[in-house]
Amino acid sequence: MERLQRILAARGVASRRAAEQLILDGRVEVNGQIVIELGTKADPDHDEIRVDGKIIRQQALRYLMLNKPTGYITTTSDERDRWTVMDLIRVPERVFPVGRLDRDTEGLLLFTNDGEIAHRIMHPRYGLSKEYHVLTKPRPTPMQLQRLREGVVIERKRVVPEEIRLQRETLDGTVLTITVHEGTNHLVRRMMEIAGIDVLRLRRVRIGPIAMDNLRLGEWRDLSPGEIATLTEALHLSDEQVAKQAARPVRTTQGGTQNPANPLWRRPTPQKKRLKPGQRRSDFEETDEQQVADRRPDGENDRNERSKRPSRGAGNNLRPERDRDRRPGRVREDNDRKPSR
User: Fold this and answer.
1) pLDDT digit string (tens) for 81-102?
2) Which helix (H) or strand (E) holds 106?
3) 322-341 core/surface letters (b: 16 or more CB in 10 A; e: else)
4) Exposed/middle/buried for residue 91 (C-beta within 10 Å: 0-12, 13-18, 19+)
5) 114: confidence class by pLDDT, cuts 50, 70, 90
6) Would you say 175 and 92 are in contact if contact means Cβ atoms under 8 Å apart?
7) DSSP annotation of 145
8) Which residues are known catalytic residues?
9) Which backbone phi and psi does 153 adopt, to 5 degrees?
10) What whole-number distance in Å separates Cα of residue 202 and Cα of residue 101?
C-alpha cells in the first residue's frame, strides 16, 4: 500500500504537491469512491484509480535532459500563455520538469514521469549537487569570493556552496563555477547579489552525476541506461525501490539528440477554424483578433496595448530582444549585412 499522492506522482499525473491538491479538490477516485483525505493509501497493483473520471495507468518510465534557452519558464502550463519548457519537447508520456530554472537562466533541465526519482533530485535531504557557470564582469575580488565561501544567509538559513572557483577568463568576462545543494528559488543569483557580483549569464551544467554534453540550445535527448543507473545510485534508492523501478519498462528513443519540438522563440501557426454551414469567416475574425495575442516574455505586449495585436503565428513573434543576438544560426537582416568589398 502506498500514499495516493505518491502513486499519482509516480504515474506522471502531477507532482506530489499538485497531486495533493487534486485529492483535496475531490477529483480522485479509488475503486469508484471519491477520496478527499490526504494520506489515504491504495494498492497500485490492484486498485482502480481515476482522475477526473479517467483511469490512470502506469506509464513506461522516461528520463530526458534539455538544454534550456533563456526566455522560457519552467512549468507544465502557464495561465498567461508564456513560453514554457514544454514547448520544446514532445513525447507521448506525461513528463514534467524536475526542479526549476528561472526564465533568464539556461542550461541543464531534467524531465521525467518517475515521481520518486524527481522527488529525490529536488529534495535537499539527498544531497544531490548542482553546478552552475556564472559569467560576470568585472572579475570578482578575492574578498567577494571569500564571502561566498564562508556562506551567505538566505531566508534565515546560511547557504555554504560546496565549491566556488574562477574557471576561466573570456573576452565577455570571467566565468565562475559554483556548486550548491539547496534548491531555493533564484539561489545562485541571490548569493551573487549579496556578494556584490553582477550576473551577466547563468547556466546550469550538472545535476549530480548527470552533466550537460554537446546539446545546443533547445535540443533534448533521453538519458542513456548508464546515466540512469548512475543517477539512481547517487540518489540512494533502497533495494526494494530499485527492484520496483526495474519492473517497469524504460522508454528511450533511438534517434539520439532531438531538435526542439517548436522553433525557438516562435509559436506554431494556428490552424484556421472550419466554417459551419451558412457561416462567414468575418463572423468570428473580430473575436479571434481580440482574444489571440502575441504572448511574449517580459510583457512586451504592454508597449502597444491599444493597437491591434498580431496572431501568435505572426512573423515578428521572435525571441526576446535581449537574447536575439545569441540565437544560433540567426539569419542576418538586410541592415546587418556587411558591405561587399
Assistant:
1) 889 999 999 888 888 899 989 9
2) strand 106-112
3) ebeeeeeeeeeeeeeeeeee
4) middle
5) confident
6) no
7) H
8) 102
9) -95, 120
10) 10
- From CA 223, how far away is CA 234, in angstroms rounded? 15
Tally Cβ neighbours within 10 Å of residue 222.
Answer: 22
Question: And the C-alpha cell for 27?
Answer: 477529483
Highest mean pLDDT among 52-56, 140-144, 256-260, 279-283 belongs to 140-144
Is residue 265 within 8 Å of residue 52, measured between CB atoms?
no
Q: pLDDT (tens digit, 9 = 90+) per residue, 209-262?
A: 999 888 999 999 999 999 999 999 999 888 878 787 777 778 877 667 888 888
pLDDT at 274: 56
3-state secondary structure of 325: helix
Q: State residue 227 phi and psi, 5-degree precision.
A: -65, -40
Phi, psi at residue 145, to the nearest 5°? -65, -40
Cell 524536475 belongs to residue: 98
Host H or E run for residue 130: strand 130-136
pLDDT category at 275 given cuts 50, 70, 90 is: low
